[in-house]
Amino acid sequence: MVQEQAVLSITPLAAERAREILTRYNKPNAAIRVFIKSGGCSGYQYGMAVDERELEGDTVTEMHGVRLVVDRMSLPLLAGSQVDWVENLMGGGFSVNNPNATSSCGCGHSFRTDGAKAPEGEGSGGCCSA
């Protein structure tokens, strides 16, 4: 069952980039799935994918013409987060500003929520050298 609530937001610039990606993949009606997986240097890692499916338990938010989909396992870790687009010397990419993260890795792609030891597989994401 799909719930409609704003648990995740996206900036106008990130939405513009997301729409460009959906157009490039010729999937203008697809959503951007934002998820959390174990790994990375800090315990959890962010992931994003173009997805045409909505699965049971998904939460869907639409903002600035882009649908964001979050699965029920990732939802508590992403609640209140904002997807942004950041330009740096290495190019541009999506970034997640997560109020639930109590610490994060220097790469910005991995985080912890409670300062506790990361789950099994810490560092397996290969984001930063330990």
From TrEMBL:
Domain Core: 8-108
One GO MF term: iron ion binding
GO BP term, example: iron-sulfur cluster assembly
PROSITE patterns: HESB
Pfam families: Fe-S_biosyn (PF01521)
Membrane-crossing residue ranges in chain numbering: none
Domain of life from the UniProt record: Bacteria
NCBIfam families, sorted: iron-sulfur cluster assembly accessory protein (TIGR00049)
This protein's name: Iron-sulfur cluster insertion protein ErpA
Organism: Calidithermus terrae
